[in-house]
Specification:
Elements lengths: L5 E8 L2 E8 L7 E5 L2 E6 L6 E4 L6 E9 L4 E9 L20 H8 L9 H19 L14 H18 L21 H10 L2 H9 L9
Antiparallel strand pairs: 1-2, 2-5, 3-4, 3-6, 6-7
Helix pairs in contact: 1-3, 2-3, 2-4, 3-4
């Protein structure tokens, strides 16, 4: 049986496109991969059914053709590389709590459940801490597009809780004045510094930073 059909699919990633094809047989000589009309790879493994193109830029559309040489049977696909998404989207204007809970932070601070006088400021503190975590790690969690990273969400929850408690209690003004508009400016240490400190204390997040080349870590 000779090669008569090839079905090509292209999947976009951050600065990478993965080509996968389904042939009805193997070619006689090799697989030839073309991008925008130019041959960029020749695969002499006739059983190959996937290949990744790393020489691409984000926010650019590319057209690919995979052809079985000698058989001259080809299949084409066009795909656009998206903007960077490997680490999730950081939203500096986030307004909801995502990684911990108001009740968990209140309990850690020893605030009775019946006392809701701290809720507004405490919520603002937690949200600010969580945005600072995202910015420091250069991604948000969870991020389905980037794939699951085992253990990281739990580590993020731990830092969100501990840093929120530290940020809320780290004020120079008396406790009775903590609701004032200049509360954040009255802190001894910035929320960013509190988050950085707690991340440095968490081995899992430190390993994540190094292993995934973010926030000063080494590149993948």
């Amino acid at each position: 049986m000779a090669l008569t059909t090839v079905t090509l699919a292209a999947t976009e990633h951050d600065r990478k496109i993965v080509l996968t094809w389904t042939p009805d047989d193997t070619p006689i000589t090799a697989w030839e991969v073309q991008r925008d009309g130019t041959t960029i790879a020749t695969l002499y493994d006739v059983n190959a059914v996937t290949w990744a193109d790393y020489d691409v830029e984000n926010n650019v559309s590319y057209s690919y053709v995979v052809e079985g040489t000698t058989d001259a049977v080809a299949s084409s696909a066009t795909v656009a590389v998206p903007g960077k998404r490997a680490h999730g989207v950081v939203n500096p204007l986030a307004s909801t709590i995502r990684y911990t809970t108001l009740s968990a932070v209140s309990d850690a601070l020893g605030i009775p459940t019946s006392d809701d006088t701290h809720d507004t400021l405490l919520t603002q503190t937690i949200v600010s801490v969580e945005v600072a975590i995202d910015q420091h790690l250069q991604r948000s969690f969870p991020d389905p597009s980037g794939g699951a990273i085992q253990g990281i969400p739990e580590a993020v929850k731990q830092v969100a809780l501990s840093a929120s408690v530290a940020a809320y209690t780290n004020v120079t003004a008396p406790a009775g004045e903590s609701g004032s508009d200049d509360w954040f400016g009255a802190q001894d240490n910035s929320i960013g510094e509190i988050v950085r400190r707690d991340i440095r204390r968490n081995p899992l997040l430190t390993g994540f930073k190094v292993g995934f080349g973010v926030a000063g870590g080494s590149s993948r």
